[in-house]
Amino acid sequence: MVKSVIITCAVTGGIHTPTMSDYLPITPQEIADEAVAAAEAGASILHLHARDPKDGRPTPDPKVFMEFLPRIKQQTDAVVNITTGGGLGMTLEERLAAAIAASPEMTSLNMGSFNFALYPLLDKYKTWKHDWEPAYLENTKEFIFKNTFGDIERTMLELGEGHGIKFEFECYDVGHLYNLAHFADRGLVKPPFLVQTIFGIMGGIGADEENLMHMRRIANKLFGDDYEWSVLAAGRHQMPFVTQAAVMGGNVRVGLEDSLYIGKGELAKSNADQVAKIRRIVEDLSLAVATPEEARKRLGLKGGDLVNF
Which GO terms describe its molecular function (predicted)? Predict the structure, then answer.
């Protein structure tokens, strides 16, 4: 039986900086408004980061998260998924703080360390809104996004066993799938798994159709019927890759974290624009879009009444 397509929307992220788009949500009110609009457009999962409202830099501060999480919950039934990736250079303690405080239904969980390189973006901009932006990007030339087996195990125990949280397992390369299989074999996580395969981040697997097929094959081999497959792709690869994933029976992720554009050379004016576009594509393919309740059931989530916001 063909499943409905779960649409995740990653609303702001910790990659893009304010100079890159005037439409990137920064303040808690902007993040809340964008998240609610994305849910109304068809997203059943909202993947959320926080930013310092003064200058837009990523922040792990639970107090900032708590300025928008209740607003989102009051206005939509969408599943709230809080990042544990945070922003580049944050400690694991900082990255887990908001999730521990909020106890959401889902968090992200990166499944391995790798070189997370954003410095090529420096060449696209001549001036910057804030002094922190070019240094933030330049530092990625020497940056390793640290997610050791110890880090992953701690996250699984503190959030999974401690709070009943399920994970969006972010897999940036083939080895990350095997890392997840290792923890599943140890019984530290149990199905159903939401496996988010990620393409086009410099340092991770490239945005190549052969890689898309290969990641799908390996995930099938490792997890069989125990997982829900989702795809995101960076920048211009976003819509082609998520469309291909939907055709192949998978789920999709869009949002301004992953791409600032709605089409070639055209900035997306909102997250809802991207959600509405992929929803049109999915429905034109005679596929249905999953409701939040369908997503909860398929992913085995604890329910929105058991969160701390």
Answer: 3-keto-5-aminohexanoate cleavage activity; metal ion binding
